[in-house]
Amino acid sequence: MTSALVAVARAVVLAGWPLVAATAGFWLLAVAAHLGAGAGWLYELAWQVTLVLVIGALGSFVVHECGHVAVLLSRGGSSSVVVERTWWRISVTPVGDLTPKRAVVAAVAGPGAAALVGFATLAAGLPPAVGWLHLAHLVFLLPVFGDGRVVLAHALATREGA
Question: Any idea what DSSP says for residue 140?
């Protein structure tokens, strides 16, 4: 499971390289301004930008996708997963069949894991934007997104079978 978690984290970070580059740019600006004009306050700005872009925006997607992988590969789940990366999205697809219940749990696990981390970061006193970026992953449970479609499909199938 560890190698799958690393693979999905790597795919997310590679997709999010512009956020890392922007953060690096803020740090270079802070160093240059400090050396040139003694503007040490820019270090605090660079740190806040790092927290929001890397820990908040990029980190929330790492947690989201790793939440899916953890459930998919847990006992009784898939034998492996395939990480699909396109220009617009990253998704994790299980290899093999899943029970409908396992599919729903895996779908909810991504946004759920991100939301749990969001609550923890808010409680820890990190900048609120970091927590809210994680909590925003709950929107992926809406039926217009893949996670929400899985939940809705199972709910409709269960209703029709009842």
Answer: G
E strands, the chain, in order = 80-85, 90-95
Per-residue pLDDT of the chain (162 residues; tens, 9 = 90+): 788 899 899 999 988 889 999 999 989 988 998 888 887 788 888 999 999 999 999 999 999 999 999 999 987 677 889 888 887 788 898 888 888 888 999 999 999 999 999 999 999 999 999 999 999 999 999 999 999 999 999 888 877 765
CA 13/CA 67 separation, integer angstroms? 16
CA distance 20 to 72: 28
Domain locations along the chain: 2-161
Q: Are 116 and 93 in contact (CB under 8 A)?
A: no
The conformational region for residue 138 under phi > 0 = left, psi -120 to 50 = alpha, else beta, is alpha
